[in-house]
Amino acid sequence: MTVLYTAEVTATGAGRDGRTRSSGGVLDLDLAVPKELGGPGAFATNPEQLFATGYAACFHSALQVVARRAKADIAGSSVTAQVGIGPNGQGGYGLSVGLVVDLPGVPREQAQELATAADEVCPYSNAVRGNVEIDLRVA
């Protein structure tokens, strides 16, 4: 693979209760453990929200690519990513991902075809395939 771009982010502090900052400083965020995992939650983000942000944006871009190739109008479309975390039964933790694709005005069968094609194009989907269960749904 020829790398076209590399993102660089550094985490400091106490991991999930620390801070992240991108190399250019555009991303500069406090982190907090979610209440559901015993933390304060509150007004800071967490790794699962950051992963969901990246996955939703990346999948939506992949969806736009496949729609353009299929000459499909997906104006007003959206992708919602739901990232869960929990024990994996082997002493560690794992992730689950739900992707909800909303394509207003696109017939359901075509919407499903576009979502499935986007799943093959999206780098996030390709990175987690076989490691993370993905629940891909069309709204």
In short:
With 139 residues, the chain is of the alpha+beta class.
What does this entry look like structurally?
- The protein is of the alpha+beta class and 139 residues long.
- The chain has 2 domains: 45 residues, N-terminal domain of TfIIb; 92 residues, GMP Synthetase, Chain A, domain 3 (2-Layer Sandwich).
- The protein is built from 3 helices and 6 strands.
- The strands form 2 sheets. It has a 3-stranded antiparallel β-sheet, with no helix packed on it. It has a 3-stranded mixed β-sheet with strand order 4-5-6, with helices on one face.
- Strand 4 and strand 5 form a beta hairpin.
- Helix 1 crosses helix 2.
- The longest helix has 23 residues.
- It is globular.
How is this fold's topology laid out?
Elements (H helix, E strand, L loop, with lengths): L8 E4 L6 E4 L5 E3 L16 H23 L8 E10 L5 E10 L5 H14 L1 H6 L4 E6 L1
Parallel strand pairs: 5-6
Antiparallel strand pairs: 1-2, 2-3, 4-5
Rough outline: globular
Count of helical regions: 3
What's the CATH topology label of the largest domain?
GMP Synthetase, Chain A, domain 3
The CATH first-level class of the largest domain comes to: Alpha Beta
The proportion of strand residues reads 25-35%
Rg, Å, rounded: 17 Å
Q: What's the architecture of the largest domain, going by CATH? A: 2-Layer Sandwich
Q: Sheet with the most strands?
A: 3 strands, antiparallel
The CATH homologous superfamily of the largest domain is named K homology (KH) domain
Assembly type of the chains comes to single chain
Main sheet: strand order = 1-2-3
- Number of discrete domains: 2
Q: Please estimate the helix content.
A: 25-40%
List low-pLDDT spans: none
What's the average pLDDT? 96
Q: Which structural category do the helix and sheet elements fall into?
A: alpha+beta
Distance between the termini: 34 Å
